[in-house]
Design brief:
With 177 residues, this protein is α+β, with helices and mostly antiparallel strands. It folds into two domains: 36 residues; 130 residues, Nucleoside Triphosphate Pyrophosphohydrolase (Alpha-Beta Complex), CATH 3.90.79. The protein contains three helices and twelve strands; from the N terminus they run βββββββαβββββαα. The strands form four sheets. It has a four-stranded mixed sheet, sandwiched between helices.
Length: 177
C-alpha cells in the first residue's frame, strides 16, 4: 500500500497548563480517512542528563527522593535546560548543582524522546570526563552522592535499582563504550 502517511492536524486545544508542562488535544485526520482526538503532553523545557566519569573509571550517581513513585533512588545528575542555555551548559550546571562536581570535558552521548507516543519531551545525554569536586551538592534536593565502579553499575541495573529511564538509558549507552 503506497499512500501519504501523514496524520493531518485539523485543530488543537489546550486542556491544562502548569509551570512544567501542558496538555493539549489535537483533532487529527488519519491517512485512512477517519478522525480522532490525540492528547499530547507538552513540556516547557527539554531535559539533560550527565554520566560523570572519574579519571579512575568510576561513575558518580546522586540519590534523591522521587515523590511520584515515593522512593529514594540512585540516578544520574539531570534536570531541565533553561531558556537560552545549551544542552552542554545545562549538563555542566546540573552536575555542579546536584553533585558539587564539574567536568574537565563534556562529550555528547545520545539524545532521544523518552515517551514519544504521548509527549514532546527530548532528553540530551552527556558523558562528563575527569570530574572534579567544586563544592557542595544541593542538600535540599540530593540525599547523597557516591561513586560506583563499572561492576557496581552493572549490579544496580541487574537488580532493578536504576529505575528512571533517563539514568538507565545514559548508563546503558555509557556501558556500550
Amino acid at each position: 500500500m503506497n499512500f501519504d502517511y501523514v496524520w493531518r492536524k485539523l485543530s488543537t486545544q489546550s486542556v491544562l497548563r502548569t509551570p512544567y508542562y501542558g496538555v493539549r488535544v489535537d483533532r487529527l485526520k488519519h491517512p485512512q480517512g477517519h478522525e480522532l482526538d490525540y492528547y499530547v503532553i507538552e513540556f516547557a523545557r527539554q531535559a539533560v542528563g550527565v554520566v560523570p566519569v572519574h579519571e579512575d573509571g568510576r561513575v558518580l550517581l546522586v540519590q534523591q527522593w522521587r515523590h511520584p513513585v515515593e522512593k529514594l533512588t540512585w540516578s544520574l545528575p539531570a534536570g531541565a535546560i533553561e531558556t537560552n542555555e545549551s544542552p552542554a551548559d545545562a549538563a555542566a550546571r546540573e552536575l555542579g548543582e546536584e553533585a558539587g562536581y564539574a567536568p574537565v570535558r563534556l562529550e555528547p552521548l545520545y539524545h532521544y524522546h523518552p515517551t514519544i507516543g504521548v509527549a514532546d519531551q527530548t532528553f540530551h545525554l552527556f558523558i562528563a570526563r575527569g570530574v572534579r569536586e567544586i563544592g557542595e551538592r544541593d542538600a535540599s534536593e540530593i540525599h547523597q552522592v557516591r561513586f560506583f565502579s563499572r561492576a557496581e553499575i552493572d549490579g544496580l541495573i541487574a537488580h532493578n535499582e536504576i529505575v528512571d529511564g533517563l539514568s538507565l538509558t545514559g548508563l546503558l549507552m555509557w556501558l556500550r563504550k
